[in-house]
Amino acid sequence: MSPHRTPVDPYLPGHGDASYEVQHYDLDLDYALENNILSGRATLQIRALKRLSEVTLDLHHLKVVKVTGPKISKYEHRNGRLRIKLAKELDEGDRASLTVTYRGVPKPVRDEVGDAGWEELTDGVIVAAQPGGAPSWFPCNDRTSDKATYSFKIATNPDYLVVCNGIRTGTRRRAGRVEWTYEQRQPMATYLATVQIGRYVEIPIAADIPMSAAIPPSRRRSYDNAFADQGAMFEFFTRTFGPYPFDVYRVVITDEALEIPLEAQSLSIFGTNFLNRQWDSQRLIAHELSHQWFGNAVTMETLQDIWLHEGFACYSEWLWSQESGGPSTAEKAAHHHAALLRKPQNLVLGSPGIAEVFDDRVYKRGALTVHAVRCRLGDEAFFDLLRAWIAEHNGENVTTADFVAFTQAHTGVAIDDLIDAWVYRTELPELPVTAA
């Protein structure tokens, strides 16, 4: 797979720069909850992908105070784009370090696909950046195909717990604040970077890796009930998909309702409305956990291929249903195939369009596509394929064409016709023959 084949997302115009990549972000932040003021210093280690005289970063709403680096001539910040003129050009392959100091009141970024980013809760903060919300809180090269490692340092009110991606490396008190540090050591797309701040307590979860939940103290009983199967889900998914791809996994429960839960790399975020044992909550707990493999470890190049995330995550719900004693995966497939037949047949799964990226049909038809692949291959080859797909492409960006080619190379079975029917045509194919 050659990197950066379609590096700027056509569904997110005005985001990302294809001329360079960021290899590491070092984010040093201070957040004042009382007036929602974020002060930051971001240092980006970049590498030129072609000869460069200018670097463009994405940063919305916040004010740039200073830009420094060894080769900075001048900069201009307008309309959410920070253009940095270099005093000396970078040749292809050259590396440089840029530091941006900024502050202001962060607000979600508005795009045609939807609003996303840093958002105040009644008492705390949630960062839900999919698809284009990362520039609401740090300057970045906001394209999914540019994955980097991260260091986070965040200081805030000592009464609040701060959760970020990756391993927590320390906490310390400083001038009436508590400073939290985290390291995300595996490559991560910008939209998956997150900060969660709340009056939380941290509860350990028994697992083979460090796993915990950050919850409001008053929600402990309902959390224990709702997430009783988290450890079993984790064991099932590692057995089914292969080793967990990150160092830790956390769940954050905000102290208010959320329309939908959210996944970020190495953690998932839920509202209090999901703290129950009903299937609609349990399936979403499984869904968000499965995204650590399908979406976070192996990541689409652009939103056009979002079925590679949501189809596999939705299919993971159906797998968990059978594993946990509910309807079988085949029964779930039949149910949702019948439901899709009652809906308009005008969606192209492999290019749903900006307005339909998060349409429920993308999720369900995507899952049925995965089921069709399973039926074509048989169980042993199918589950071996999933584990190999994750192992081979962990940390990378992929396309539908990559999945088709990998399947053929790994199994010797062609699925071009199947993918053409399910992913690139509007008419819903017949229900696949049951795999088990």
Name the overall outline: globular
- Please count the helical segments: 9
Strand order across the largest sheet: 4-7-2-1-11-14-13
- What distance separates the N and C termini? 33 Å
Query: Residue-averaged pLDDT, rounded?
Result: 96
Question: Which homologous superfamily in CATH is the superfamily of the largest domain?
Answer: tricorn interacting facor f3 domain
Second CATH tier, the architecture of the largest domain: Sandwich
Please indicate the percent range of residues in DSSP E strands (runs of 2 or more): 25-35%
Q: Round the Cα radius of gyration to an integer and report it.
A: 22 Å
Characterise the protein shown here:
The chain has 436 residues and is an alpha+beta fold. The protein has three domains: 1-110 and 130-191, Immunoglobulin-like, CATH 2.60.40; 200-292, Orthogonal Bundle (Neutral Protease, domain 2), CATH 1.10.390.10; 299-423, Neutral Protease, domain 2, CATH 1.10.390. 26% of the residues lie in helices and 33% in strands. The chain has nine helices and 22 strands. It has helices at residues 220-226, 230-241, 279-290, 307-323, 329-341, 360-377, 379-393, 400-411, 416-423, and strands at residues 20-32, 37-48, 52-58, 63-68, 72-78, 81-90, 95-104, 109-111, 114-121, 124-128, 148-156, 161-164, 167-174, 177-188, 195-198, 201-204, 211-215, 249-253, 262-264, 267-270, 299-300, 397-398. The relative contact order is 0.10. The mean pLDDT is 96.
